[in-house]
Amino acid sequence: MLRVVPLVAYIDTPSPAEPDRRPWEPDWAAWRRVAGALAAGFAAGQVHGAAALVLILLAFGLACRALDAALPYRQGLREHRQ
To answer: What is the domain extent for residue 54?
Structure first.
């Protein structure tokens, strides 16, 4: 004998929670350093002598600071646990 068993099911589909992330905004300080490094690098190609050396060092320093601002700092050796 075939019995019919009623089935009642509730399927919960919660709406996804809003992420706690802020919208992306450019870091204008880092972009100023990049623009300064590019300008100093271009100017270093136009001049000669000690002025070119100073401009190359300036471009290198600004590029390093821009990379430091762009890349996350991982605390170096402070993360090492002995």
So the answer is: 28-72
